[in-house]
Specification:
The protein is an alpha/beta fold. The protein has one domain: 3-Layer(aba) Sandwich (Rossmann fold). It contains nine helices and eight strands. Strands 1, 2, 3, 4, 5, 6, 7 and 8 form an eight-stranded mixed beta sheet that branches. Strand 4, helix 5 and strand 5 form a beta-alpha-beta unit. The longest helix is centred in the first third of the chain and has 24 residues.
């Protein structure tokens, strides 16, 4: 990957999420309390943890962890997202948070800086997610935890799913299947893996209102979902409720430990 390609992709992310900052934050699915509790429970975060939220977006995960952890840092490429995160922190009256605008490859932190490093809904935006995961492991203390939460389409649905998501969000790169994500976590050397799954329920038109596809692509997405009602080719359980199309993103959570032998 050339520096020019990475810079172009970063510009696409900033363009998309500057527009999405407010509607993304306001989508109920992104703040689902039961999903956040599941992640908190699986990570076993405690009051002694120092947490890094990689590609923290509007701070939803960082603020949830800050209600338990000692200190939380959020880093994101998009200034508009960090602004939303700061507002959320103020609303929740949390003082143990700090934010940084910056790229995550490489992460601008020293080795072994955090006891828990997490990222949610970001891996499908990375050109080289394994390199980001390696960076997350690097800045984690030996014995600490590294956590990835992302959509994981079924193997036989992944191509169609990624095509749809690329239409909806041009900064989308590729959502990994669960076996592929699990293999990646194992390849970087994380151990004592714990996993769980949940779904993020969405209504199609509300999701499109919070998205900024290229001109004409919203209608292409609608047609894909109308077809999906019959074929289930996207793997998101498309169905009609009150004449509206609903679906659910399949989400996997993987928690791994950085072995105390890896410095």
């Amino acid at each position: 990957m050339t520096e020019v390609a990475q810079a172009s992709h970063n510009a696409s992310i900033i363009n998309q999420f500057t527009q999405q900052a407010i509607p993304f934050t306001n989508l109920p699915g992104h703040s689902n309390e039961s999903a956040l509790k599941l992640v908190l429970r699986l990570t076993q975060v405690s009051s002694t943890d120092t947490v890094l939220d990689v590609a923290c977006g509007s701070g939803i995960v960082a603020c949830a962890f800050a209600e338990v952890a000692q200190q939380v840092t959020g880093i994101d490429l998009t200034p508009a997202m960090i602004e939303r995160a700061q507002l959320l922190q103020q609303e929740k009256k949390l003082s143990n948070l700090n934010w940084q605008i910056g790229d995550v490859l490489p992460l601008p932190y020293d080795d072994a800086s955090f006891s828990l490093v997490i990222t949610r809904y970001s891996f499908h935006h990375f050109i080289d997610p394994q390199a980001v995961l390696a960076e997350m492991k690097r800045v984690c203390v030996p014995g600490g935890k590294v956590v990835v939460v992302d959509v994981t389409p079924a193997l036989d649905k992944a191509t169609a799913y990624n095509h749809m998501e690329k239409l909806r969000d041009p900064s989308h790169v590729k959502a990994l299947t669960f076996p592929a994500l699990l293999e990646m976590v194992q390849q970087v050397g994380l151990v004592d893996l714990r996993t769980d799954f949940y779904q993020v329920e969405m209504e199609l038109e509300k999701q499109l209102q919070a998205s900024f596809p290229n001109l004409g692509d919203a209608e292409k997405i609608r047609q894909l979902f109308i077809k999906d009602l019959e074929t289930d080719s996207l793997g998101v359980g498309s169905h009609r409720t009150d004449n509206e199309i609903h679906f659910a993103y399949p989400i996997a959570v993987i928690v791994g430990q950085k072995t105390t032998l890896n410095y």
